[in-house]
Specification:
- The complex is a heterodimer of chains A (about 350) and B (about 250).
- Chain A has one domain.
- Helix content of chain A is about 10%, strand content about 50%.
- Chain A is built from three helices and 21 strands.
- Chain A starts with a strand and ends in a 14-residue tail after the last helix.
- Chain B has about 250 residues and is of the alpha/beta class.
- Chain B has helices at about 45-50, 75-80, 100-110, 115-130, 145-160, 175-195, 230-240, and strands spanning about 5-15, 15-30, 30-35, 55-65, 70, 85, 165-170, 195-200, 215-220, 225-230.
- The radius of gyration of chain B is 18 Å and the shape is globular.
- The chains are: A mainly beta (about 350), B alpha/beta (about 250).
- The structure holds adenosine-5'-triphosphate and magnesium ion (MG).
- Adenosine-5'-triphosphate binds next to α1 of chain B.
Chain lengths: ~350, ~250
């Protein structure tokens, strides 16, 4: 039987300035036959889980994701069931909501679509670990962050083999809402990561700390967008990575200051450690500005392990191989160390 | 005393330029040697060549350490055999903490896993003798350290790694009066605890205050031009290098 697929354009830049380089977006093919994957979950007491829909006062807000409209349409067409979660007003949860996805090859594609509502004044940490291998898997999170509410989303991806992995996030933050994203991207054959965060409420904030390690023939395609519409909103996109072998990485980071976001600040920085000259390292930082009273900054630093550093380490008995391993690990650890102790079982990140 | 290092007829340089024109130097186990000489004489080059630094070509002679020919051997292998070079300009290692770096280094050199708790206690004790704040253990090695702090971090490594032969390249330069004293005490502590041999490259004598010097060598223009006991240092101090130059 012929398997039917959909061809989608995802990870679009907010404006198409890079036509010649064909970096504006990514074209991907996803299967039409999909189902959600059964995951292990630890649900803290007081977080409500509702099958099939998003719930709460923010459930009607249309939220865009980093992947974009094509993906949204595709998910609707597949008819896949959405898992809704909602916190209680004003409650700060000590225990995280933990999910673990351990893929084992399936006949269909995998889609897990979550819809998280962080109610006014509440705060929650969500941990999602992705492991194992399959042909294609997609994880999408829609996050609705209420007034003075805060969501910390920690995602750790350690997929093996040639798994094609799609990780998409869409966020909407109301007044004083905060979204903190920590992503550790270590595996998969090809990975696509998208984030769009609508900083709609006054003083709402986005902060990301992302670490990736891409080696051999793997590839990583990223699109992160901070959409500033609210006054005095802040975004801080920070990315660290290691590229080795024939790895290919494309990072698109956009800070979009819309009319009316007076007093907004945004910054993005990427720090890449290049191990081999054979890697492809592409970075597109974009700051779009429709408002005068804003501050935007971007920067990129590229590190190499030079001879003097290597000589110093070797003079202390550390072999070249180990020196490289240490420097690579350090790059990833700087983000892993941000994760509060006790949130992960230690074995999961080593 | 048994011979630890024996350099004979060593010629080395970079690309087409010879910097060391036939050096003979021998150091016995546990001896303290001082290497002095004008700027650009080749002192750092000699230290680098002994430990197998990349970029230098050895065109003649040999370096025998502990009965083994280590001429042109890989730096990490030489370090594992017990040779330590304290850098004139220590390198910054972003992302790796002082503590993590030293622990890894110790594990590599000894070939044994070290328990974190034991290591921490030891490290903190040694840091205290060097008047280093404990918080430096968790800072990236040498990143943002002042010149003097970098030198102290080198002596900290000397005391933790316990090599059989330590070459200290101007470890006392750029240090304030108190810091020189602390570093000098650190070097004496190394002598006392480990009993290793030292080659101290210096332009000053205050680092030597707590040590008994066995031998002094004067290097000029890539050659050893004079040798003697500790009194040679005083001669240099009073009359400069001019007297040794041809
Ligand atoms: N990598 C190099 N590239 C070019 N020249 C070099 C290099 N290493 C050493 N030299 C040259 O070799 C000579 C000896 O240098 P070296 O650093 O060994 O001197 P030194 O005795 O340590 O001097 P100082 O007292 O100033 O530290 C100098 O003329 C220096 O310029
Ligand atoms: Mg020198």
């Amino acid at each position: 039987m012929e398997q039917s697929n959909s061809t989608l354009t995802i990870n679009r830049l907010p404006v198409r300035t890079w036509n010649r380089l064909k970096l504006n977006d990514a074209t991907v093919v996803l299967p039409d036959a999909v189902k959600p994957y059964e995951y292990f979950e630890e649900l803290p007491e007081g977080v409500d889980r509702v099958k099939g829909k998003s719930i709460g006062p923010m459930s009607d807000i249309k939220i865009a994701t980093g992947f974009g409209d094509d993906l949204d349409g595709y998910i609707n067409d597949t008819g896949v069931m959405i898992s809704g979660y909602i916190t209680e007003d004003g409650r700060e949860y000590d225990k995280p909501l933990k999910q673990k996805y351990v893929y084992a090859d399936t006949a269909e594609g995998i889609i897990n679509a979550l819809d998280l509502t962080i109610s006014d004044g509440s705060s929650l940490t969500v941990v999602q670990e992705v492991d194992g291998h399959t042909s294609q898997a997609l994880l999408r999170n829609i996050c609705r962050i209420g007034k003075n509410a805060s969501l910390t989303l920690i995602q750790i991806q350690k997929l093996t083999g040639n798994t094609e992995f799609y990780n998409d996030i869409g966020v909407y933050a109301e007044d004083g809402g905060e979204f903190n994203l920590i992503q550790i991207i270590l595996g998969a054959g090809s990975s696509y990561y998208g984030l769009k965060c609508a900083l709609a409420g006054t003083g709402s904030k986005l902060s990301t700390n992302i670490a990736y390690s891409v080696d051999s023939d793997r590839r990583l395609d990223m699109n992160y967008v901070a959409d500033h519409t609210g006054k005095r909103t802040e975004s801080d996109i920070s990315v660290r990575g290691v590229l080795k072998g024939n790895a290919k990485k494309l990072f698109r980071g956009s800070i979009d200051f819309h009319k009316g976001c007076a007093g907004a600040k945004g910054s993005e920085i990427e720090n890449v450690l290049l191990i081999d000259d054979t890697v492809t390292n592409q970075t597109i930082p974009l700051i779009l500005c429709d408002e005068e009273d804003v501050e935007g900054a971007h920067g990129a630093t590229i590190g190499r392990i030079d001879e003097s550093l290597l000589f110093y380490m070797r003079s202390r008995g550390i072999s070249e191989e180990q020196a490289y391993a240490l420097m690579e690990q350090a790059q990833i650890d700087s983000v892993i160390n941000l994760i509060e102790e006790g949130i992960l079982e230690h074995e999961s990140i080593e | 005393m048994a011979e630890l290092l024996n350099i004979t007829g060593l010629k080395a340089g970079i690309e087409d330029k010879e910097i060391l024109h036939g050096i003979d130097l021998s150091v016995g186990e546990g001896e303290v040697h001082v290497l002095m000489g004008p700027n650009g004489a080749g002192k750092s080059t000699l230290g680098s060549v002994i430990i197998g630094a990349p970029g230098y070509e050895i065109t003649g002679g040999s370096i025998i350490y502990d009965g083994e020919d280590i001429t042109g051997e890989a730096t990490d292998k030489i370090a594992k055999k017990g040779v330590f070079l304290s850098f004139q300009n220590p390198i910054e290692i972003p992302g790796i903490t002082l503590s993590n770096f030293i622990k890894t280094s110790m594990e590599e050199i000894t070939g044994q896993r070290i328990k974190l708790w034991d290591f921490k206690k030891k490290l903190e004790a040694v840091m205290e003798t060097l008047h280093m704040d404990k918080s430096y253990a968790d800072r990236d090695l040498n990143v943002g350290f002042s010149g003097g702090e970098k030198k102290k971090a080198e002596i900290l490594q000397l005391l933790m790694l316990r090599p059989k032969l330590a070459i200290l390249d101007e470890t006392d330069s750029g240090l304030d009066v108190d810091a020189v004293h602390i570093v000098s005490e650190g070097v004496r502590e190394y002598k006392k605890q480990v009993g290793g041999a030292l080659i101290i490259i210096t332009h000053s004598t205050r680092i030597l205050e707590a040590l008994d010097v066995d031998k002094t060598h004067i290097l000029a223009d890539g050659r050893i031009v004079a040798e003697g006991d500790a009194t040679l240092i005083d001669k240099v101090n009073s009359d400069g290098f001019e007297q040794f130059l041809g």
